[in-house]
Amino acid sequence: MKKTLPIPIICLLAILLFTNAKQKSTTSTSASADASMSFKVNGVLTTMSDEYAQIKTTPVGSGVVNVIRITGETKPGNYPGITMQVQSQAPGTFTFNTGNGTATMVNYMEGAGSQNIYAPTSGQVTITSLTSTNVAGTFQFTGRSAGGAANMTRVITEGAFNCPIRPQ
What we know:
The protein is mainly beta. The chain is built from one helix and ten strands. The protein has one domain.
């Protein structure tokens, strides 16, 4: 004679399996699922699909400097893209410096070649939240083409980011 499980045990197993499957589907989101970066370039909305941040420790003189590098790309290695760098380990508002080799910088890239890279002439980034796994904030700046005519500018407004921190 074939043995079968009693109906109450079968019902209990079904409920447990359903509950476990539902919990996995609603709670197994990754940190990058909420990642985002968007901004307007001369009034046109641009949204990045690959955004992340890294915290780098860089030797300077006899000490070290911690730098947050925030990157957004339409897809890895493609244009347009933006990279910001902030010398800080705490939330705050930081003005983009307009010289080379500065601690707080930004570059907006529309393509390969220096004429498609826009460096800041003014602007700022505000880090509103910084944890060991995520950085969020806002930014805006005016950039001039690094290799083009002086009148080649881009105005970046309404910038916002929420990026997971990746290991170096």
